[in-house]
Design goal:
Elements lengths: L2 E14 L2 E14 L3 E5 L6 H9 L6 E10 L2 E2 L5 H7 L4 E4 L13 H13 L3 H14 L16 H13 L5 E5 L7 H18 L2 E6 L2 H7 L2 E6 L2 E7 H6 L4 H8 L38 H5 L5 E4 L2 E3 L8
Parallel strand pairs: 3-8, 3-9, 6-7, 7-8
Antiparallel strand pairs: 1-2, 1-4, 4-5, 9-10, 10-12, 11-12
The structure holds adenosine-5'-triphosphate, iron/sulfur cluster and magnesium ion.
């Protein structure tokens, strides 16, 4: 299977007046064509920063300080802002966390969607509106939405608009950052069904970011677990659910009593570390029930334990 996205040793730091926040600190993974990679981890683990970095949209005072992002054969991390602007939305797009705010409140939905097409493709307004209507139909919205303003839509409808916008230029990869978090459970289920359907029909590759491991189980074929700026486990969904290797993943999975009962991942004792000064060795050691001496001293390498199933934990290495 062809590789859609390759992320190599990516580092993204925020240079704040109170210190350097190492939000993403040496992250590597691959998304193959048609893959949905679920990225899960507690609040502040660096999930959104990872998404922004892939699009070259890390907000100041943040910046990419190391590593590479390669989409198809294009090294995004080597492009100028102008070159990136051409690729954003057309080759890789993002449904942002709290995305409803990206809609312009004083512009009709049809006009703001058409503007993206006119800008990127140079087509006429009439042609653009035709494509807009096709996309609204695709995400299950009535066509009169074209004429409405954002405040005339429900939260679920707005989220569908934002998803339609992200797909407008048929990108190769869509990054969906907590696309259902602000929505009630019924609408959440509808949006999940929509994403699953689009994944099949449009043959999308996707990175699906969430707090909620039970949502990942519904849609992703691969899972990356993030802790304190690092991926600590990566593998197929089946393997990670059936045989979680990292103690942090095990705790996360224990925190969902059943796949149907959704719960935020907040019960694990202790708090994630301050990323300005993360603990030495394994960053999870202050909260890990299995922590050994070596864990406090040396960072465990991220290695393949079984075929396609990676983790970084000294429990699996002789020391
Ligand atoms: N603009 C910023 N300036 C300084 N620090 C930031 C900024 N944005 C994020 N951070 C810090 O970077 C780290 C990672 O944040 P990020 O938003 O990527 O986490 P997240 O996993 O998406 O969290 P959540 O689940 O709450 O959305 C956190 O420590 C956060 O405080
Ligand atoms: S390396 Fe040590 S502290 Fe870290 S998860 Fe493994 S056992 Fe726990
Ligand atoms: Mg986030």
């Amino acid at each position: 299977m062809a590789t859609a996205l390759r992320v190599e040793n990516l580092k993204v730091y925020y240079f704040t007046t109170r210190g350097v926040v190492k939000a993403v600190d040496g992250v590597s993974f691959v998304v193959d064509e048609g893959d949905v990679l679920g990225v899960a981890g507690e609040s502040g683990s660096g999930k959104s920063t990872l998404g922004y970095a892939i699009l070259g949209l890390v907000p100041p005072p943040g910046r990419i300080v190391g590593g590479r992002v390669i989409l198809d054969d294009i090294e995004l991390t080597a492009l100028s802002e102008d070159e990136l602007r051409k690729i954003r939305w057309s080759k890789v797009s993002m449904v942002f966390q709290g995305a409803l705010n990206i809609l312009n409140p004083v512009m009709r939905i049809g006009d703001q969607m058409a503007e993206i097409l006119i800008h990127h493709k140079g087509i006429s307004k009439e042609e653009a509106l035709k494509v807009v209507r096709e996309h609204l139909r695709m995400v299950g919205l009535p066509l009169d939405v074209v004429k409405r303003y954002p405040h005339e839509l429900s939260g679920g409808m707005k989220q569908r608009v934002v998803i339609a916008m992200a797909l407008l230029l048929k990108p190769r990869l869509v990054i969906a950052d907590e696309p259902t978090t602000a929505l009630d459970v019924v609408i959440q289920a509808q949006i999940m069904n929509l994403l699953k359907q689009l994944k099949e029909e449009e043959k999308l590759s996707m990175i699906f970011i969430t707090h909620d491991l039970s949502l990942i189980a519904e849609i992703a074929n691969k899972i990356a677990i993030m802790y304190a700026g690092k991926i600590v486990e990566l593998g197929s969904s089946e393997d990670v659910y059936a045989k979680p290797l990292h103690p942090y993943t095990q705790s996360l999975l224990n925190s969902i009593p059943s796949i149907k009962q959704r719960k935020r991942l907040s019960w694990i004792p202790g708090a994630p570390p301050d990323l300005r000064d993360p603990p030495p060795g394994c960053r999870f050691h202050p909260r890990c029930p299995f922590a050994m001496d070596v864990c406090r001293r040396e960072e465990p390498p991220f290695i393949e334990i079984e075929k396609g199933h990676y983790t970084s934990c000294w429990l699996y290495l002789k020391k």
